[in-house]
Design a protein that fits this description.
By secondary structure, this protein is mostly beta strands. It has a domain of about 300 residues: TolB, C-terminal domain (Neuraminidase). The protein contains 1 helix and 54 strands. The chain has a 5-stranded antiparallel sheet, with no helix packed on it. It starts with a helix and ends with a strand.
């Protein structure tokens, strides 16, 4: 006989599943992991198989442990670069056991305890795991009693306590063997990295800076460097009084001693993949850091799918080398760039009846026929000395010109109907400056839209602003002033937080995916900003048993609006495509079944909730009203049809 709590739990599950169903069918039109290339391109016989590093920890013997988030396993890498599976076998699940008998779901942060055990933030299972040197996996019992939303980072303290950054809830937990405690963070922050301080206080970092946890509040330690917002992805002690930090958006590793200046020790400011001297080395969205037994650093170079080793010389300068990369040591074939790598933007070119896709990490575009045949377009060697570096947003003008945001070099490019590429605006240096053409400056420009006045509007993500480029290349700021925040107001008095997507409404207003405010904003052409959709608190799509969150979004990144005023949204961190109906002012999930910051996103074609996405970033309208989706995490282009 079922107990009353069991029956209540079952009833809760049934009620939680009563989400509005959708008839939209999702199918894959471009499998970016195995492109069907045009005859003029070399063909590839094997789809790429690889791993994506997330968390790092290093043993006293120099063994590097890596959480392979997308493949649900823990890898170990020897000091000579040999890669082996340590625990898990690539299948998602929630199971203790030894070696390949254990199961994880999107494992994230790692920390090595004073007891020699690895501690893992098993983010998709919302628990902590303990892993021995022989790969024996046990769940930390107390973590089952905590309602984690997404434990992202874990720090094993010297007193056997565990500290956990639960990013989705904005909370930090302290756990001992029999006690759990919630530590207060600053409001509206998503803590991602933890480190101890010499004063005994806990330091934590997020994509808005570096903070120290006080008794009942958080104190800001660092928020800016070289006049730019400091975005910290990983934070570790240097063993003395300082810290090493990774800055994913400026692709660099830094060192900081409290009271002193930040020092760039390797990488930046553009994404790339290069070993060598500190000033020559290049990374692509560097993530977790770990310190080795001889003072060397290890770095998860996330978008390059490799582990880097930073070795100090006698002068204290760090030489960068690759310890191991995805696709080596028997973990799959590398395919010489013949796939899609994190496609960000997609549009349908009615003139040529092709899809145009921005192949983000390969620094190029693709033209793809309706039959799925792909032709590389504007490879780095074909751009007349003005390469597309991390192309993101796409837009098309009424004359057929294509506009591309080169986010890695902070420029907006124009491709004429005749196929000639030029720089429309942007100096190539990070900055926030109006001006004409190359005199203007941007910082991580992403989404683009062409307005009824034929001007190009830009979501200037790093500057938290919306910019306007006239046809002669003159750049002005429509809204925002370079500071992050949330404020409905006119012009520069308005505030955004990493806006990503822009699209025009039939009434002439500009709508903005204000990603890290988890809202959709509306701007008149006079610059008056208001909030149209969403709440400040991010939420799960369509249903939350705690409160009505039907209009909640989590990091919306792309949007497109049809002639009837319906808004289609790439709800990226909910791994769903949403539709906002102007008649009801409510959101509906059209497709996808991801959960609130649940890294258990996946891939599946099908109808409505049967379909799965992984952090979709771009949406566009097709020739018959279909919705095209840049399914970024899956490296695919999908089409949705009612």
């Amino acid at each position: 006989m079922k107990t009353l709590p069991t029956l209540f739990y079952l009833l809760l599950l049934v009620s939680c599943s009563a989400e509005p169903q959708s008839d939209w069918q999702v199918r894959t039109v471009v499998n970016g992991q195995f492109l069907k290339l045009a005859k003029s391109s070399p063909t590839a016989d094997t789809p790429r198989k690889g791993w994506q590093p997330e968390g790092l920890a290093v043993s006293p013997e120099g063994m590097v442990y890596v959480s392979d988030r997308e493949n649900h396993r823990i890898l170990r890498i020897s000091p000579t670069g040999v890669v082996q599976e340590h625990a898990g076998n690539g299948e998602a699940g929630d199971l203790d056991g030894t070696g390949d008998k254990a199961r994880f779901r999107n494992p994230a942060g790692l920390s090595l305890g004073s007891d020699g055990q690895l501690y893992l933030a098993d983010s998709g299972n919302h628990v902590l795991r303990q892993i021995s040197a022989i790969g024996e996996v046990k769940t930390v019992a107390l973590s089952r009693q905590i309602e984690f939303k997404t434990p992202f980072s874990v720090l094993a303290g010297p007193d056997k306590s565990l500290y956990v950054a639960d990013s989705a809830s904005g909370r930090i937990f302290s756990l001992t063997e029999q006690l759990k405690q919630v530590l207060q963070t600053a409001p509206n922050l998503l803590p991602e990295a933890l480190a101890p301080s010499s004063s005994g206080r806990l330091l934590y970092a997020d994509l808005q800076g570096l903070w120290r946890l006080e008794l009942n509040a958080s104190r800001t330690l660092l928020r800016r460097h070289d006049s730019q917002l400091l975005r910290v992805r990983s934070l570790i002690s240097d063993g003395k009084n300082g810290y090493f930090l990774s800055d994913p958006y400026l692709h660099r590793v830094l060192h900081w001693v409290p009271g002193g200046a930040l020092e760039v020790i390797a990488g930046g400011p553009e994404a790339g993949q290069k070993d060598g001297k500190p000033e020559e080395a290049r990374f692509a969205f560097p993530g977790s850091l770990a310190k080795g037994p001889a003072g060397e650093l290890y770095l998860a170079d996330t978008r390059n799918n490799r582990i880097c080793k930073l070795t100090p010389n006698v002068q204290g300068k760090y030489q960068v080398s690759t310890l191991a990369r995805s696709g080596s040591q028997g973990f799959g074939e590398r395919r010489a760039g013949e796939d899609l790598s994190l496609p960000h933007g997609v549009l349908y070119d009615s003139r040529t009846q092709t899809y145009i896709v921005s192949d983000y990490l390969h620094n190029r575009l693709f033209k793809i026929s309706l039959e799925g045949v792909a032709t590389p377009w504007f490879e780095p060697s074909e751009t007349n000395g003005e390469p597309l570096v991390l192309p993101a947003g796409l837009a098309q003008g009424p004359d057929g010109s294509i506009y591309v945001s080169g986010s890695g070099r902070h420029r907006i490019h124009k491709i004429s109907p005749e196929g000639k590429i030029s720089v429309l605006a942007g100096s190539g240096q990070v900055g926030f400056k109006d001006g004409k053409g190359k005199a203007a400056q941007f910082y991580l420009p992403f989404g683009l839209a062409v307005g009824p006045d034929n001007a190009v509007y830009v979501a200037d993500q790093g500057n938290h602003a919306i910019r306007k480029i006239a046809s002669d290349g003159s750049v002005t700021t429509l809204a925002g002033n370079g500071e992050s925040g949330w404020q409905d107001a006119a012009g520069r008095a308005a505030r955004f937080n990493k806006p990503s997507g822009v699209a025009f409404h039939p009434d002439g207003s500009l709508w903005v995916a204000d990603s890290w405010n988890h809202r959709i904003r509306k701007i008149t052409l006079q610059g008056q900003v208001s909030t149209a959709i969403g709440e400040k608190v991010p939420g799960q799509a369509d249903f939350d048993p705690q409160r009505d969150q039907q209009n909640s979004l989590y990091v919306p990144e792309g949007l497109v609006i049809n002639a009837a005023g319906a808004v289609f949204i790439a709800d990226s961190w909910n791994h769903r495509i949403r539709k906002w109906e102007p008649q009801t002012s409510r959101l509906q999930s059209l497709a996808g079944n991801g959960k609130y910051l649940n890294f258990g996103a996946g891939f599946a074609d099908g109808r409505g909730q049967v379909a799965h996405f992984s952090q979709p970033k771009g949406v566009a309208l097709g020739p018959q009203g279909q919705v095209l989706v840049a399914d970024t995490g899956n490296n695919r282009i999908r089409v949705m049809e009612p």
